[in-house]
Amino acid sequence: MNTYTPKPIDTSKVNLTDDLLELTEHLAENTHEIWSKQRMGEGWTWGPERDDKSKKHPDLIPYADLLESEKEYDRMTAMETLKVIVGLGYRVRKS
Known about the structure:
- By secondary structure, this protein is mainly α.
- It has a single domain, classed as Globin-like, CATH 1.10.490.
- The chain has two helices and two strands, in the order αββα.
- Strands 1-2 form a two-stranded parallel ribbon.
- It is globular.
- The chain starts with 17 loop residues before the first helix and ends in an 8-residue tail after the last helix.
- Keywords: Receptor.
- One of its GO terms (cellular component) is calcium channel complex.
């Protein structure tokens, strides 16, 4: 029986500056690049449909070519990470 209940840090009141919102897109793209590199390192290649047995995945393409729904998944991960950083009192500044 699974009794795990996710309890992420509440970031609903954290607002990101325009600079950090811009950074979100860079982080999202990098997240996709890291995921792609890891998959390819495990022997996965592009395929029109996901097939775990033959290690094919339709998202093994450049970030710019992803469907918006797939980009949004990476954006949410990046944005929530930045919100946690800011919410915990850290500052992110471009030098």
